Hints:
Elements: E1 3-6, H1 13-24, E2 27-30, H2 31-41, H3 44-54, H4 61-72, E3 81-84, H5 90-102, E4 109-114, H6 117-125, E5 127-130, E6 136-138, E7 158-159, H7 166-180, H8 182-188, E8 193-197, H9 202-213
Parallel strand pairs: 1-3, 1-4, 2-3, 4-8
Antiparallel strand pairs: 5-6, 5-7
Bound molecules: adenosine-5'-diphosphate (2 copies) and zinc ion.
Amino acid sequence: MNVIILGPPGAGKGTQARFLTEKMGLIQLSTGDLLRSAAAAGTEIGLRAKAVMDAGNLVSDEIVIGVVSDRLDQPDVRSGVIFDGFPRTAAQAVALDRLMDEKGLTLDAVVSMDVDDDLLVDRVSGRFTCAACGEGYHDTHKRPAKDGVCDNCGSTEFKRRADDNAETVRARLNAYHADTAPLIDYYRGTGKLKTVDGMAGIEEVAVAIRAALD
Ligand code: ADP
Ligand code: ADP
Ligand code: ZN
């Protein structure tokens, strides 16, 4: 099964995509993670993308589509993919249709996570992740069971993203409303859209997504 998780920054896409990798054996394809890895590796594309990401703007379609195309050429995606944070523009959606066609893959569903803007600033500002395993946490909504220790792997190192601050979130929300939200109608037109209430608790949202995909 190949699924897109669509939603604004902080909606919980990464959190839910991680559940789907565990429960359904799907591969998480997060363009944000791929771009951050490229930036950390210091590649030319990574460095160009980093400046754009730090400002809260969208990286060019050309770069992002190239990154996704390369990832889809790796054999592990044949077990099914969750697209997390891609597509984010109409041009990316059209490119994804073409790429899937070329690579003999089918898009099964698009899960749209609905969350009000005022909640998103809090979600993004409080976000942190385990530096070792990538498990996601939140200052108020999802603290590790033991303070300072990752529930998943026991690591005591955590990190916060440079772009997860209140000012940059505003720019990212503007980009979402201008360029990404119109994709909801695009996918409604394909009959593949499933909408879930992303304002409920993490577990409730997970149950709603699994029901939508069953
Ligand atoms: P996205 O990938 O859409 O940007 P994340 O999955 O990283 O969002 O979630 C953003 C932050 O909000 C994280 O700190 C996460 O722990 C927290 N979070 C995710 N889903 C919920 C939820 N349903 N309720 C409360 N907090 C949530
Ligand atoms: P979030 O879900 O919190 O918005 P992501 O990790 O998905 O975070 O994205 C972080 C940043 O990476 C975005 O603000 C943008 O600069 C860049 N980015 C990620 N995916 C895309 C994409 N599909 N198109 C353009 N830019 C992207
Ligand atoms: Zn961990």
